[in-house]
Amino acid sequence: MPQVVLVHPQIPPNTGNIARTCAATGTELHLVGPLGFEISDRYLKRAGLDYWPYVKLHYHQSIEVFTQAYQQRQGRLLGFTVRGNNNYIKFQFAPDDWLLFGSETAGLPQEVLSSCHETLYIPMYEPGVRSLNLSVSVAVSLFESRRQLGYLE
């Protein structure tokens, strides 16, 4: 089953909303530090409501620590960025994919993008809109991957 990875998230309510989505879908959530908040942040907890016991949460202190964990489990690293090479709707997801998302302010760091097997984007009609909210991007991407893989039935 695909996993969600947030690299250096900054806004607690976004991470809380993503955690709630991951809890609802049984998806593992990986947070890669440094984070822009404390894991115990009340806004993070409030956004996740009382679903935190259902979140399969992994915290990695750095991208290097995350990379070690990823290498043990394998799969493809898929970096989501507004400058991605592939439309996520036309991309064929696999069960062992890792869906990587960067911080709300900076996106994925270049060194992370360089290590990705593929980069994906979510198409947007209005060119004046720079990007979608992080929690929306994760939900849209996660549900498309799950739809393709038959996990929504």
Structural features, described:
With 153 residues, the chain is α/β, with parallel strands linked by helices. It has a single domain, classed as SPOUT methyltransferase, trefoil knot domain (Alpha/beta knot, 3-Layer(aba) Sandwich). It contains 5 helices and 7 strands. Strands 3-2-1-6-4-7-5 form a 7-stranded parallel beta sheet. Helix 1 (12-25) runs parallel beside helix 5. The longest helix has 15 residues, at 134-148.
Question: How much β-strand is present in the residues?
Answer: 15-25%
Q: Tell me the Rg in angstroms.
A: 14 Å
Q: Indicate the mean pLDDT.
A: 92
Low-pLDDT windows of residues: none
CA-based shape: globular
| Helix proportion | 25-40%
* Main sheet properties: 7 strands, parallel
- CATH fold assignment: Alpha/beta knot
Number of helices: 5
Task: Record the strand order, biggest sheet.
Answer: 3-2-1-6-4-7-5
The CATH superfamily label reads SPOUT methyltransferase, trefoil knot domain
Order of helices and strands: EHEHEHEEEHEH
Q: Give the class-level CATH name.
A: Alpha Beta
Blueprint of the fold:
Blueprint: E1 3-7, H1 12-25, E2 28-32, H2 42-48, E3 56-60, H3 63-73, E4 77-80, E5 86-87, E6 98-101, H4 110-115, E7 118-121, H5 134-148
Parallel strand pairs: 1-2, 1-6, 2-3, 4-6, 4-7, 5-7
Helix pairs in contact: 1-2, 1-5
Summarize the structure.
With 153 residues, this protein is α/β, with parallel strands linked by helices. It has helices spanning 12-25, 42-48, 63-73, 110-115, 134-148; strands spanning 3-7, 28-32, 56-60, 77-80, 86-87, 98-101, 118-121.
